[in-house]
Amino acid sequence: MYEKINEDISVLGIYSAHMFIPKKFKWREKIFPIKEITLFNNVRDGSIKKRLYSVMSGTNLYRIEFNRDSESWKILEVWCE
Fold first, then answer.
1. Is residue 35 within a helix (H) or strand (E), and if so which, with residue range?
2. Could you state, in order of their start, the residue ranges of all structural domains in the chain?
3. pTM higher than 0.85, yes or no?
4. Which residues of 31-59 are buried (b: 16+ CB within 10 A; e: fewer)?
5. How far apart are CA 66 and CA 80, in angstroms?
6. 73: exposed, middle or buried (Cβ count in 10 Å: 0-12, 13-18, 19+)
7. Is the dihedral of CA 35, 38, 44, 49 positive or negative?
8. Has residue 34 got a pLDDT over 90?
9. How confident is the model at residue 80 (pLDDT cuts 50, 70, 90)?
10. H or E segment at 57?
11. What one-character DSSP code corresponds to residue 68?
């Protein structure tokens, strides 16, 4: 099941073929290398443009969000068993 987090994070990545690819993120002073992006999707929250990513780090799945208007990142959820 997903555990809701909704906290600010920092993300490091690269641009490739006009697309940002997150490579790692920092959450609660710990670095999480991203080994796989399992899903990404562009969405709107009213007039706010966002890009959602589901990413694997270690054995955990995280849902992170980039707010394209404020250019800020959040970790939304983590999959817990």
1. none
2. 2-79
3. yes
4. ebebeeeeebeeeeeeeeebbebbbbbee
5. 22
6. buried
7. positive
8. yes
9. confident
10. strand 48-57
11. T
Sheet with 30-33, edge to edge strand ranges: 30-33, 19-27, 2-16, 72-79, 60-67, 48-57, 36-45
- Of all residues in the chain, the percent with pLDDT exceeding 70 is 100
Element (H, E) at 47: none
C-alpha 2/C-alpha 4 separation (Å) is: 6
Q: Is 35 left (phi over 0), alpha (psi -120 to 50) or beta?
A: alpha
- Token code pair at residue 41: 């999707």
